[in-house]
Backbone:
């Protein structure tokens, strides 16, 4: 409750509080801004998470080209966009939310709800644009419900968004039941809309969802890494209390991030409806785990305060190309899940290992810096 | 669940020893390496397709047919796919089975794309969604791939035109299950349906006919339809919800092999419920045998899923070879099953072929079937 009240001298929340501990890889901006410790940057660059992701992506691409006869054909890029694009879009607001130390598990249910609202209005004779706008507005309302519960009532976001995960999906089910819209008696969705699923953006091999993802990634990347707002998000994730005392409106930032997430997930629901030429209440069921997986593999710390949009973009590319290659090779889908799960485990384990190594290094050099970064808080 | 585990790591991580962490990393890496080594053996499946040549029966040799079941674990679908493999091996062709682990359209679309990229001759799909697969299937048809649906149809209209291999007359399945249940509960009481995915075309069209048939039994009331998503755990969860919400429930119809087995398993360990509750539906004799023999379930229905896949395989080969067409009255030979005729469109169902009437299994005959 009180966390919304910023001290009067605070502006838009610029500076990083001095209490912020030295951040590790992935949040170079915060390190540069908040830490006076000057370390040789070369070895830091070498162990950056993104560097590892680039290597992993290269490995995935080489693996795909060698093992699958059709991986290098141009349409693969389009197909990958169709399969992962709408999921990847939801990973961007999720990244920002996780950076601030929270989580949004209702993303896939919001995708389903937005599609259901769109379908229900279409079924009742609405034309497409008003229906799309209402679906987006439902995203904003759902997002602000999450945001209010988390920031005003101070409830843990994992509990709140598990609740809304069920709530949103339930409303979608009430709206559509077992119907698939358009039903046999409905008008089909307009063809310019459904073309999103079958035609690449003209002159490219990119799906519409891919192009929207790239555009949104640029916006989120700039916001997170090159603005005071972004530094405030990192600060909120590292030390929420300290950030608040430094004048950062932590609650307000988190609230609007949930609204942003709701709207973007609603957009993903509309794009999926377009791609499938139809909506069912169970569209995107269970995808929240894929979204979280993408974000974590991208090097965003689940504890908040660390991460980069670049890492998440690379993570999307890795998972997307691995899935394409493995499906083309007709690998058992269970094995595919094991591969993705294994990658995820590694993404959690390696940062811990590298922190442990650095902690050991600090102990060996006998406290030249007074910190022990092994413990995050 | 993955998400919960992540959160748990958060609290446990301080205590986590470096050794433990290294073990986790090792297991992750091992998973990656074992999968990539397994891949090389099956990578050849996607490549050979275009060297088709006509044999004496008019069926081309070397046909590649992609079977895309609802998911890869469903035992019913596994049997159907095996039937398809038998058919194509008799015809000198090959079946590639490809799908996801969950019953969603999104999990099937990559398999359709893979079939397009592999220049398959035909796709035989069990639709997880009546419409969401149509854009992808239409792309496949545009590349000259013949489209067939089996088990669960897709409602794509004319984009693409496709042949539905129907397991049994849709209306007969729906009405006969209600009749079986009515007979067992004296046509009186509350009943419920334990279905598969809410968007599954086959389930929903059977349920439509069940509701119609229920009009004949004014004292039987359908109180709830629950969806177990063809997942044993989900089916059990929704079943328990059903039993607690409707303590006076007299009957459950589960027109899915996964649902009926989950329900039978539960009732088998809670026999006190059996005094008033009757379970029937569609089940595999091999799975249901113990429950029928011990009286948990008295009657259920099914057709031979392996024959369904076999019929679909012959139909796919005949369409891909141009020896039959979607025109009403076209015929084709389906190996040991004999000759089949393409039926006219009716309602949302396009051209179709019907395997035959369903078989009713009781304790007298259930041991005679091995599928």
Residues:
């Amino acid at each position: 409750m009180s966390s919304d009240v910023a001290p009067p001298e605070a502006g838009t929340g610029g500076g990083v509080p001095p209490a912020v501990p030295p951040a590790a890889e992935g949040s170079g901006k915060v390190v540069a801004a908040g830490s006076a410790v000057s370390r040789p940057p070369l070895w830091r660059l070498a162990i950056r998470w993104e560097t590892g992701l680039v290597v992993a992506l290269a490995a995935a691409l080489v693996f795909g080209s060698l093992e699958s006869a059709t991986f290098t054909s141009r349409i693969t890029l389009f197909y990958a966009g169709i399969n992962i694009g709408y999921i990847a879009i939801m990973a961007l607001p999720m990244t920002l939310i996780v950076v601030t130390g929270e989580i949004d598990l209702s993303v896939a249910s919001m995708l389903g709800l937005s599609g259901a609202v769109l379908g229900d209005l279409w079924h009742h004779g609405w034309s497409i644009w008003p229906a799309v706008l209402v679906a987006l507005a439902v995203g904003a309302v759902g997002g602000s419900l999450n945001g209010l519960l988390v920031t005003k009532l101070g409830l843990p976001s994992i509990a709140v968004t598990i609740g809304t995960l069920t709530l949103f999906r339930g409303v979608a089910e009430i709206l559509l039941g077992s119907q698939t819209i358009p039903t046999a008696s409905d008008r089909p969705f307009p063809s310019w809309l459904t073309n999103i699923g079958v035609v690449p953006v003209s002159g490219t091999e990119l799906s519409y969802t891919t192009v929207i993802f790239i555009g949104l990634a640029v916006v989120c990347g700039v916001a997170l890494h090159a603005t005071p707002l972004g530094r405030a998000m990192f600060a909120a994730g590292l030390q929420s209390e300290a950030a608040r005392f430094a004048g950062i409106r932590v609650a307000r930032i988190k609230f609007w991030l949930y609204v942003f997430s709701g709207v973007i997930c609603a957009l993903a629901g509309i794009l999926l409806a377009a791609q499938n030429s139809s909506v069912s209440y169970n569209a995107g069921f269970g995808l929240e785990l894929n979204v979280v997986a993408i974000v974590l593999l991208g090097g965003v710390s689940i504890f908040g305060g660390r991460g980069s949009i670049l890492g998440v973009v690379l993570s999307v590319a890795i998972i997307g190309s691995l899935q394409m290659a493995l499906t083309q090779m007709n690998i058992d889908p269970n094995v595919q899940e094991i591969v993705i799960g294994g990658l995820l485990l590694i993404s959690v384990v390696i940062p811990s290992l590298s922190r442990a190594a650095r902690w050991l290094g600090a102990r060996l050099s006998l406290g030249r810096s007074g910190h022990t970064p092994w413990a995050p808080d | 669940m993955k998400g919960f585990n992540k959160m748990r790591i958060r609290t446990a991580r301080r205590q986590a020893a470096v050794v433990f962490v290294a073990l986790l990393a090792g297991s992750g890496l091992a998973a990656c390496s074992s999968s990539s080594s397994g891949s090389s053996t099956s990578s050849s499946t996607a490549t050979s397709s275009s060297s088709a040549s006509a044999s004496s029966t008019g069926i081309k040799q070397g046909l590649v047919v992609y079977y895309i079941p609802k998911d890869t674990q469903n035992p019913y679908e596994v049997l159907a796919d095996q039937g398809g493999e038998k058919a194509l091996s008799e015809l000198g062709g090959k079946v590639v089975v490809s799908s996801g682990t969950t019953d969603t359209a999104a999990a099937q679309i990559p398999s359709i794309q893979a079939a397009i990229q592999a220049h398959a001759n035909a796709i035989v799909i069990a639709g997880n969604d009546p419409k969401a697969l149509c854009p992808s299937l239409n792309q496949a048809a545009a590349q000259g791939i013949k489209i067939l649906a089996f088990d669960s149809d897709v409602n794509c209209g004319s984009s693409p035109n496709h042949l539905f291999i129907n397991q049994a007359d849709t209306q007969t399945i729906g009405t006969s299950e209600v009749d079986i249940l009515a007979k067992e509960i004296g046509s009186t009481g509350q009943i419920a349906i334990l279905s598969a995915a809410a968007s599954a075309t086959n389930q929903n069209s059977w349920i439509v006919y069940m509701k119609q048939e229920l009009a004949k039994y004014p004292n039987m009331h359908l109180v709830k339809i629950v969806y177990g998503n063809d997942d044993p755990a989900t089916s059990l969860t929704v079943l328990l919800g059903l039993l607690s919400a409707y303590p006076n429930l007299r009957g459950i119809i589960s027109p899915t092999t996964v649902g009926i087995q989950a329900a039978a398993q539960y009732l088998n360990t809670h026999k006190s419920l059996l005094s008033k509750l009757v379970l029937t539906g569609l089940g595999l004799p091999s799975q249901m045998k113990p429950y029928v023999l011990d009286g948990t379930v008295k009657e259920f229905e099914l057709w031979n899923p392996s024959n369904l896949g076999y019929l679909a395989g012959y139909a796919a080969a005949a369409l891909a070879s141009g020896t039959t067409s979607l025109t009403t009255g076209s015929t084709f030979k389906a190996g040991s099953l004999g000759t089949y005729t393409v039926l006219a469109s009716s309602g949302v169902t396009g051209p179709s072929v019907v395997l035959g009437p369903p078989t009713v299994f009781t304790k007298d005959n259930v041991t005679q079937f091995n599928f």
User: Anything to note?
Assistant: Residues 1-37 of chain A have pLDDT under 50 and may be disordered. The radius of gyration of chain A is 22 Å.
